[in-house]
Predict the 3D structure of the following.
Amino acid sequence: MDPRRVLTFRAVAHERSFSAAARTLALTQPAVSQQVAALETEVGARLLDREPGGLKLTTAGRILLEHADALADTLTLATTQLEEHNNAERGRLRIGAFSSSLAALVPETVRRLRDAYPDAEVLVQEGDSLALAERVKTGELHLSVAFQDAALARREHEGLTRHDILREPFLVALPPDHALSGKPTVALEELADAPWSAASTDGLIARACRAAGFEPRIVSITRDPIAIREFVARGTAVTLVPRLLKPGMPGLAFAKIVNGPQRDLYVLTPPGGRHPLVEPTLQALIEVASATG
């Protein structure tokens, strides 16, 4: 297949209009129509149907659009990597990371990286794991640190390589004067009546509580480790904390959880043309996770 025709078809498919796609591509409408018609001849199937409400993808069109989007992502990444290869930004490494990894893994990783490569410049940006993955795909980030609930199906990210670095258990974090403080292990159902702090109403903490047979009464929704520690320390909430965060939360009581939840930490990297500091950073992350986990 002619990749230019595939990308032209992609524009039409997303715009649902030959004329709108022509404006986006700076082409004439007849030229766009001719390219899509030639592509349909090439693949031996209709890709678009004209309907009163506009264009509609056929089954073959939906299949091809998925590959066309992947092709566009690959070309965008290639453009970014080639531009970096030829400019002065080559030394700057851009890392994406979710909030709690910034409080545990990433700072020590960056310190080790700078010790080994004194001239390297590192930029770390916080974000949601899924949003950061998209930025790695486009080359905006060189790698990202991500996590997922280990109880869910393994999450793969099309077009990216996943490197698993740690499976981490959660602990219960309690106020120091809580009735369960001092117990080495607790069952979540013992906290069914407690107020909870969580990152969301449907995330890992909520799922763990529901699996234990109760709906958590969430009184604080935040991902900020400092805010979480303060809510728990002042006796206004309990929560679940990844083990890596325990050293950064002094003044709280912690306990292991009977059949408690776990999360998988992993790193996402793009294909080809990786920044030269990606591999040393990945190795440093693995070493830090192993030492602290």
